[in-house]
Design brief:
This protein has helices spanning about 10-20, 30-45, 50-55, 70-80, 85-105, 115-155, 155-180, 190-200. Helices cover about 70% and strands about 0% of the residues. The chain starts with 7 loop residues before the first helix and ends with a helix. It has one domain.
Length: about 200
Amino acid sequence: MSAHAPRFTGFQAELRRYLQHKSPLFPPQFNEVVADVVMFTSATLLDGFEIAFEKAATGAKAWANRSFIQVCEAIVEHHIRVIQPTEKELVGKSLFEAYIHFAGPQRVFEHVSRTRFMRSLRRRGARGLAATFLSLHLFNMVCREISEDVASRMPDQQSYELYMFGIEAMCREVVARAIELTDGELEERWAAAIVSAIEAQLFPV
C-alpha cells in the first residue's frame, strides 16, 4: 500500500475529523432500505428473480424483457422510496453499484438471465449483497466529504487513487467486522445493529 494510504487507526482519525458534523452518520430510514434489500434478495433466492421482482415493483410484467441495468434502476427506486430526497441520490448510487457489482458490469445491458447476478447471489447470499451495499455506501459517504481535500494534499493522480483505494478497502473491512459482530435474522433490527456496529468502530466512545 502507498505511503500516502492511512493505516486503520489513521483512517479512524481522518473520519472523525471529516464526519464529526454528521450525526447520525447514516440517513434516516437507512435501516429500512437495508432490510428491504435483504427481503428482496432473500425472496429472489427462494422464488427466482422474476417472481420476486413482480412482488416488489409496480407494473413488473412490462419489464420482463428489459436489460438488467433498466430493471436494476426500477429495483433501486423501489428500495429507496422511504429515503429523504436530500439523501436519495447517494443511497441510490451505492445500491445501484452493489447490484451492478453482483451482476458483472460486462453484462448489465443484457437480460438478467445472461448476467452473473443469480450466481453471485447464490454464492454470497442476501447478507453478501447487503454487505457490498453497506461498504460502497460508507465509501461514497467518505468520498463526498474528503475527496477534494485529499486531492489537494496528494502530489499526483496516482497517489490520490492509491489513497482512495486504501480508504475503500478499509470501508469493506469496517463493514465485514460489523457483520461478524452481529447475529440474528436478516431484517430491520439486524440492519440497525450493523449500522450501530459500523458507527461504534468509526467513533468509539
